[in-house]
Amino acid sequence: MTTEQKTIKSLDGYQLIAYYLTQFMFVVGVVLMVPVISLLFYPSEYITFLNYFFPPAAILMLVGVLTHYYFKSYEKNKLARHQDAVLVVLIWIMSLILSGIPFLFMGYSFTHAIFETTSGYSTTGLTIVDVTTAPKILLMFRSFMQFFGGVGFVLVLTSVISNQIGMRLYQAEGHSDQLVPNLLKSAKYIMRIYILYIVIGIVFYVIFGMPLYDAINHSISAVATGGFSVKAASIGAYQSIAIEVTTIVLMILGGTNFFVHYILLIKREFKSVFSHIELKVFAVIASTTIVFSLLSLMSYLDLGFGEALRQSSFQLISAITGTGYQTIPSFKGLPSTMFFFIILTMILGAGMGSTAGGIKQYRIGLMAKSQYWQIQEMLSHKKTIRARMVNRVGKKINIEKEDMIQNYMFITTYIIVLLLGTVIIMAYNHSFEDALFEFASALGTVGLSVGIMNSSSPALILWTGTFGMFLGRLEFYVVFIATSKLILDVFKKKVV
After folding, report:
1. What angle do helix axes 153-160 and 13-33 make, rounded to 10 degrees?
2. What is the pTM of this model?
């Protein structure tokens, strides 16, 4: 070994994690800078930008640049087992806190700031901000949090900085599909598709009469299935069927696995797309819940067929895709059938690898298939061997018993967490139905609300919602693994 090789310094373990965190500070700084776009529409708010956004953004970007150049010559070793999960969780926590700085400067409490940033990055849409009085630059900032949170922090990091962190981080953040063998190319494809849909949405919103500033915010949030709006009445404020149809299309696009978009737009394999298990599950869930909700609106509220279809389809698609936009003033007066279906669809969720939350349609489809296979086994001869296959975007995937067990474990964990959060909210004298609705919305990163989580809510309710949104976006296991790893390393004194 030469003298030159001996003197090369390296980073590994938690030192390497700390380095990656400083690099992501640069990304958070960019997110804080992006809302400057709103000054094109409201130039009078430049003082707000200079006071509340520019200083923390400049500092974070400077830290990222300086640490990058300081450690540029250092060799970056591989992360140890489960440290990828630790890094992902720490990236999220750091981003939530640092992105809350403008809210703190504006007088929001720490609880409110973290609730809002968690809602933004998790693409939930629950809010404590009064959109009628908040600065427009803050509203734009919330939309761009959903933009970056929708595609995923790891994907943004890979697109902006490098591919060196790799697929382990990408999968640890909750993504199950890789479009092409190279993660950097996957990131570019996803970003292009994502931005294309947003631009198309902006164009159609403007054509149908929505102001450009509103169109930018709503298109970003619709494709990100985030649901933040610049209007207190959400999409219902515009009273336009064309705007509602545009929003429905954008919500469905955002709630669909990005791998499906890649196969459809880039590879043009139409048969593969329509045989995809998640699209079949979506069709069954959407058609069933919309039909029954439509009938309940017609009978309970005496609405005509057209209006009942308009209201039921928008609210149910918003719930299924985890978006959280609405066209009705309140969910309190809904028929119990439709109220139940909105809760159910928020729990079931949208596609794997999409910007939405919930249990996810693939897991629901696999659960249904597992039940069918189990009944088959009970009715057939014991020596009969059958292949268990699931169609994922045209590819027949062999399903092992271990896959089914893991699937049931996730669904069981999801339901347990859902019930625990519901009980905590019920402790504040809310009914079971309302508490279940509100926490199902938080855990499913949906954003629909019956009014329990707002600026005047007790801190414990808001922190329950915050934790639910965080767990729902990262899908439990990465959080559990990262926490366990940190605790074990602290006891072993590996964290320095």
Report:
1. 90
2. 0.91
